[in-house]
Amino acid sequence: MGKLELIMGDITLSDADAIVNAANTSLLGGGGVDGAIHRAAGPELLAECRTLHGCETGQAKLTKGYRLKARYVIHTPGPVWRGGGCGEAEQLSSCYRSCLELARQYGCRSVDFPSISTGIFGYPMAQAATVALRTIMDFLSSHSMPERVRMVCHSEDALRVYQQTYNMWYASD
Ligand code: AR6
Known about the structure:
Elements: E1 3-8, E2 18-23, H1 32-41, H2 43-50, E3 61-64, E4 72-77, H3 88-105, E5 110-113, H4 125-142, E6 148-153, H5 156-170
Helix pairs in contact: 3-4, 4-5
The structure holds ligand AR6.
Ligand AR6 binds near residues 23, 33, 78, 116 and 154.
InterPro entries: Macro_dom, Macro_dom-like
Protein name: O-acetyl-ADP-ribose deacetylase
GO molecular function: deacetylase activity
């Protein structure tokens, strides 16, 4: 079974085969990690994104990585948090699953994720971590690729939440 790692860092510096972009449904860029990925990848990324004609929440589309070290960027619009009663958890889980499925189809051995929806879209970090880790662990337990998935947390607080969530659900001792 592939392994999951929780680290702190800047996903634009990732050397994984694919990185995930917490995008919006236009796929035409924005703030947060989306803005950082577009800046680091260069204008060719936006040019390719324009050919994709957007993406639905919970789905994913793949582009090349251009000036990034990562070969591919997998763009997924997460849900906007509306209090939790509007299908947000199912949509967030679908984001992770769709990205992992695309990565597998493109032969990616390693994939790095940011914490989708937990910035501008307002999803509470602990609840997002539960959905993210459960979906990734389920996928890894039933597929041989990718071999390594990393959650790249952007702050110590975020990393602590992911570690605590992991320990709560998956630690064996
Ligand atoms: N590396 C890793 N994680 C990061 C980085 C980075 N360089 N920069 C931010 N984060 P957000 P969302 C974390 O707001 O909530 C955009 O405008 C950040 O701390 O980037 O899904 C899109 O176009 C947070 O934990 O994405 C959409 O309109 C996480 O990444 C909207 O924002 C996600 O924060 C998407 O909102």
